[in-house]
Amino acid sequence: METIHYQVEDRVAKIQMMRTDVKNAINETMHKELYEAFRKASIDDDVSVIMLTGTAGSFSSGADLKSIPVEDMETFDHGDYLERTYNRLLLLMEEITKPTVAFINGTAVGAGLSLALACDFRYAVYDAKLALSFMQIGLTPDAGASYFLPRIVGLAKALELGTGKHFSGEEAYHLGLVNGIGEPSELIEQLKLMPVPAYGLMKQNMKFGMSGSLQDVLEAETSGQRVAGKSEQHIEAVSAFLKK
Asked: Can you tell me the distance from the alpha carbon of 144 to that of 225, in angstroms, rounded to the nearest whole number?
């Protein structure tokens, strides 16, 4: 791949954005390669956890504005661009039942931060520079930020961050936007032990629980438990417990 590095090691698929000359700004080639990498990791039986990160002190500086035809701004449709790039990728990430982790190794702004928000877990280096910088160029937050950010930090704080306020990895931790500071090695080891399909069902039900009624969520839990209860991992775990 031209713009990312994809590697599977010890049941972890590492997707690393590699456009270092532009701080991992996301162009259409990277969109296609990110989509293919997440799709590949999601169906690989040798992958238990998917980690997204950057390189050279940058997670991602967001959309590559140089990939937008500035000379055609009056006719360029940002909505069409979103539909064939970010929306497609975000919907795929949302469907993945395996744990996804974003390691924010440095700068994450605009749509770069949006991609991190779409992961199940986020870790950041202490001095990471974060911002939803859409307002600075007269645009509204996209790439799923309007969906994920209010659910993570609450509406009032999401609106504040949406104005383009810059904050550090440490501040993100205190906001609850990231789960921890530093590399997520310990978390990933824990996630590798998550039972299948129970983790995917838990993720699905908890997201549904953000908007569904109690009755609907109880029904979803019932359906999920029927599936998990017949899984090989559940049967083996119960057998091991009884033998003790």
From this structure: 29
Percentage of the chain with pLDDT > 70?
95
Average pLDDT over residues 180-204: 94
Taking 80 as the threshold, does the pLDDT of residue 57 lie above it?
yes
Three-class HEC string of the chain: CCCEEEEEECCEEEEEECCHHHCCCECHHHHHHHHHHHHHHHHCCCCCEEEEECECCEEECCECHHHCCHHHCCCCCHHHHHHHCHHHHHHHHHHCCCCEEEEECCEEECHHHHHHHCCCEEEECCCCEEECCHHHHCCCCCCCHHHHHHHHHCHHHHHHHHCCCCEEHHHHHHHCCCCEECCCHHHHHHHCCCCCCHHHHHHHHHHHHCCCCHHHHHHHHHHHHHHHHCCHHHHHHHHHHHHC
Domain boundaries, the chain: 4-191, 198-243
pLDDT in tens, 132-157: 987 787 778 888 999 999 999 999 99
For the entire predicted model, the pTM comes to 0.91
CATH topology of domain 4-191: 2-enoyl-CoA Hydratase; Chain A, domain 1 (3.90.226)
Beta bridge pairs of residue 51: 14, 101
Which of these, 103, 181, 152, lies nearest to 161 by C-alpha position?
Answer: 152
